Amino acid sequence: xxxxxxxxxxxxxxxxxxxxxxxxxxxxxxxxVMRHAGDWAQALSSARALRPAPDLVLxxxxxxxxxxxxxxxxxxxxxxxxxxxxxxxxxxxxxxAQAQQRGAAGLxxxxxxxxxxxxxxxxxxxxxxxxxxxxxxxxxxxxxxxxGGAFADESLDALSGEGSANEPTPRQRAILSYLGxxxxxxxxxxxxxxxxxxxxxxxSFLTERLNATSRQQAYAEAVARGWVAP
Length: 230
Hints:
With 230 residues, the protein is of the alpha/beta class. The protein has 9 helices and 8 strands. The chain has 2 domains: 7-131, 3-Layer(aba) Sandwich (Rossmann fold), CATH 3.40.50.2300; 137-230, Arc Repressor Mutant, subunit A.
């Protein structure tokens, strides 16, 4: 494996989540190869076909045609030398124990921060298991949209559409407010101290979660839900 150019296989049934995750990983591994699978069948097909084999699989444990915990052994048999980092919207002690027992490289909460995700991926690539309980997200307070880099290390909040009851983070509220003003991604990134890819990923996540077809529709739906003030 070339540590600066690993091959990642991203397995999740939500295309926008995979895209955002891939963008975030590309920020830290610019030469990495990203392969995508939208369900369990595609994941197995990719595991059989990809040559060279991926260096790390990031696998959502809840797929429409399979469960990452129950079927992990099947993937491991196809990729015996490839670590599998599991992802879940819900992380609890039972799932952590099951992931460890089944030989996963780790279990990562989808609400983990970008820094935590990168740390988990680096550990998995180096052969170090990563298992940590994710604490519940606090209910965010209404905020003013700040200038500068106040949001640079905040959670990516991978909003994968799995029915999570979590409300948006302060960073996402701020982005939604900018959408209401028609601010382009590049300007949002500059104002918030983020990369344009991070902003693009957040907008994609929010648009999908809000079942919106445009940025303005996402903003309107966020206002209707009370996430941001009109």
